[in-house]
Amino acid sequence: MSFDTNRINLMVKKGLRGELDHFEKVLDFLERYSTVPQAKFGMYSLVFQIAMNVFIDVAKDCEECGGKCCKSGYPVPVYNFDYNELKKKLNRDDLKKLNKVDNNLHVLPRPCPFQKGWLCGIHGFKPYACLSFPFATEDEQETIINRYNGDGIPDFNVPDYCIAGIKVKNILGSIIEDLKNRLGRPPSPRELYQELKARYGRK
Ligand code: SF4
Ligand code: SF4
Known about the structure:
This protein folds into two domains: 129 residues, no CATH class; 59 residues, no CATH class. Helices cover 55% and strands 8% of the residues. The chain starts with a helix and ends with a helix. Bound molecules: iron/sulfur cluster (2 copies). One iron/sulfur cluster binds next to loops.
């Protein structure tokens, strides 16, 4: 796979919607750069994201929470690869709910106009920032990324109110401990992903 950010981002989105072959191709690609701490951080982050979106059932947790992540916080970034998908799915009035920042970026205000109760009204084509929450949100993870030197597994910052994220982090923490005992070292992102897949299959 050649380096085409747009293509890779779309493959990540497809992966987080359950198309695992796309997700695995992105891991294959990023593994070439796994000696770079930011790339390794990104790979672990993706494994936590796919655990939350595909493998671990968090629907009840999000219902109990009431959808706090869509109600408040900074505006949600909508990158061009997100916007191009949304343009095909939304009618003109709904598209106007996105605010243009510049030619490369739109944002969704929070509270999000697409939230329906605790659910996302555009679940099948929500922006990447929503799929990756809380394991890649820049304001949540910035300090962790800056501190990460490539040793071990990043200690992702999950907000106290995100009970689904805390559940996912705890489950992966327990898998990581088991793998450390088995391997005598922290698992690579690929090893962690494979163990997650073996234990949880599809939700
Ligand atoms: S992802 Fe976290 S903050 Fe968002 S609805 Fe679920 S539990 Fe709440
Ligand atoms: S697009 Fe969906 S998941 Fe994203 S903030 Fe809006 S309601 Fe929440």
